[in-house]
Design brief:
With 274 residues, the chain is α/β, with parallel strands linked by helices. The chain has a single domain, classed as Rossmann fold (3-Layer(aba) Sandwich). It has nine helices and nine strands. A seven-stranded parallel beta sheet has the order 3-2-1-4-5-6-9, sandwiched between helices. Strands 7-8 form a two-stranded parallel sheet. Strand 2, helix 2 and strand 3 form a beta-alpha-beta unit. Helix 1 crosses helix 7 and helix 3 packs parallel to helix 4. The protein is globular and about 65 Å long. The N and C termini lie far apart (58 Å). The model has no long low-confidence stretch (mean pLDDT 96). The structure holds NADP nicotinamide-adenine-dinucleotide phosphate. NADP nicotinamide-adenine-dinucleotide phosphate (NAP) binds next to helix 1, helix 3 and helix 5.
Length: 274
């Protein structure tokens, strides 16, 4: 597609969303960087102005439908906003934590998307880009709630890829690996699961695994460039990575059976029994 018309990004106050909003504007889209608190967009606005890119900031909280006001002429929607909560053993994860995570990462995304579709159809098509996570391909213990939300978005995208094709709306899903953002930085802290004695050995292993990827972290600007490449590429597959580790996990998932994948995971996270 041509980089013209309006692009909207959710969760553009920081991290990947901010970088994607800037990149879309730099490539030529009339970009609306949406965020919960528009005051957080001041630096992004300055940066866009210096680059002579067309970008504005608008308030949008994906969990508050009354704030979702998408513009006519919409051609690209990037569903990026998401939250991460403490990763606890499943039996210790309160249902309220699942609800909070699903409220933003799934139901919020559904409502924004539902409202975007008629606008995209009215304009003769466009791109719907969902940011999920390559953690779906590496079933890390204690990540069930986060991964389940992302898997739900992934399934929604699969159905919409077909359902919206007749209207010229292309659905793409990006599966980031470790990208240098606040969300990733917080995952370097000792995991909350360490507090639960029966799960301590596994939590220690996952923490070591997390620290072991320190030299595989990709800057958000690089990830954003790859995301916008996929948005612009009419031949882009449903799923793309935006960094080396995410691409590697996607390829490994495509090449392995689910049993092989689970055997690898058990070998990685479960201590051998005597
Ligand atoms: N970084 C990674 O390594 C990584 C890996 C895999 C997938 N991802 C995915 O990539 C996307 C971006 O993550 P990130 O790393 O950039 O995270 P981040 O630095 O934590 O930024 C998250 C963004 O989402 C916004 N947000 C949260 N709740 C919202 C709501 N209810 N309404 C609107 N915006 C909301 C935040 O806004 P506030 O500033 O108001 O909090 C912030 O702008 C997410 O979908 C995440 O799951 C990231």
């Amino acid at each position: 597609m041509e980089a013209t018309g309006i692009a909207v990004v959710t969760g553009a106050s920081r991290g990947i969303g901010r970088a994607v909003a800037f990149e879309l504007a730099a490539r030529g889209f009339d970009t609306v960087a949406t965020m919960r608190d528009p005051g957080d967009g001041a630096e992004l606005l300055d940066e866009a102005e210096r680059a002579k890119a067309t970008l504005r900031v608008a308030a949008l909280d994906v969990t508050r439908p009354e704030t979702i006001d998408l513009p006519e002429g919409l051609r690209v929607l990037v569903n990026n906003a998401a939250v991460e909560k403490p990763h606890l053993p499943f039996e210790e994860t309160p249902i309220g934590l699942w609800r909070e995570m699903f409220e933003a990462n799934v139901f919020g995304l559904i409502e924004v998307t539902r409202r975007a579709i008629p606008l995209l159809r009215a304009g003769g098509g466009g791109v719907l880009c969902n940011i999920t996570s390559s953690s779906m391909f590496a079933p890390v213990p204690f990540y069930a709630a986060y991964r389940a939300g992302k898997a739900a978005v992934s399934a929604i995208g699969e159905s919409l890829r077909t359902e919206l094709a007749p209207f010229g709306i292309r659905v793409v899903e990006i599966v980031p690996g470790p990208i240098d953002t606040d969300m990733l930085r917080s995952s370097a802290e000792p995991p909350d699961a360490l507090r639960y004695e029966p799960y301590r050995p596994m939590a220690e292993r996952t923490h070591e695994g997390r620290l072991g990827i320190a030299d595989m972290i990709t800057p958000a600007s690089e990830a954003a460039a790859a995301i916008v490449d996929a948005i612009l590429d009419d031949d882009a597959p449903l799923r793309s990575g935006c960094d080396p580790l995410g691409r590697g996990l996607l390829d490994a998932w495509r090449g392995a059976s689910d049993e092989e994948m689970m055997r690898n995971m058990l070998g990685t996270w479960v201590e051998p029994q005597p």
